[in-house]
Design brief:
By secondary structure, this protein is mostly helical. The chain is 79% helix and 0% strand. It has helices at residues 2-25, 33-41, 46-54, 61-70, 77-102, 105-117, 119-124, 131-151, 154-168, 172-186. The longest helix is centred in the middle third of the chain and has 26 residues, at 77-102.
Length: 187
């Protein structure tokens, strides 16, 4: 029992460290073309976003979510960057919780630690793009696919399908990843 509390405390430290690092990185002042594109997209109506994304390669879900999240803050750059931090922290939490349940707390902790330390996570955390959300949805799809396969619970299949659908409407590579997970589960 004591070891489980140590794992939980260690995970809490990882989350706090990651959140602090990502927040500090968001004040870098840099905005690149694709981020400017995201900021321009959210100034359109939902219907216009659908029309624009129909001619683009990216599905509209990310732009809808970003528009809804940033609207109360006047579509500010800081709010948009915070919106990019949220999925990365949620991915750490989801991985820790599900892997602790499916395997053990040590595995969940190692997953979260390694994910938080990936250099690409520091990039995703400050980019106003859909990659963090795509990573969250694909991770959820994979974890719930494994959980559904192990348990056979309808709830796990529902979350598996939900995360797969969200991934598919967030980014085209996320759709391909979710498709691979679906194929692996059902084959």
């Amino acid at each position: 029992m004591k070891l489980k509390k140590i794992y939980d405390l260690s995970f809490l430290c990882i989350i706090i460290f990651a959140a602090a690092a990502y927040v500090l990185l968001m004040f870098n002042g840099a905005v690149w073309y694709d981020e400017a594109y995201s900021m321009a997209m959210i100034r359109h109506s939902f219907g216009e976003i659908c029309q624009i994304t129909a001619q683009d390669v990216h599905p509209p879900l990310y732009y809808f979510m970003l528009k809804i999240f940033t609207a109360p803050f006047g579509y500010s750059l800081a709010a948009a960057k915070v919106f990019s931090i949220i999925p990365l922290l949620l991915t750490l939490v989801l991985g820790y919780v599900k892997l602790s349940e499916l395997v053990n707390k040590k595995t969940g902790l190692m997953f979260s630690l390694m994910l938080a330390m990936l250099p690409v996570m520091t990039t995703f955390s400050v980019e106003i793009r859909m990659y963090g959300w795509a990573a969250l949805f694909v991770t959820g799809c994979g974890l719930f696919a494994y959980s559904a396969q192990q348990s056979g619970r309808i709830r796990d299949y529902v979350f598996f399908a939900l995360f797969g659908t969200l991934a598919s409407y967030t980014h085209y590579f996320a759709m391909v990843s979710a498709g691979v997970i679906y194929a692996m589960l059902f084959i």
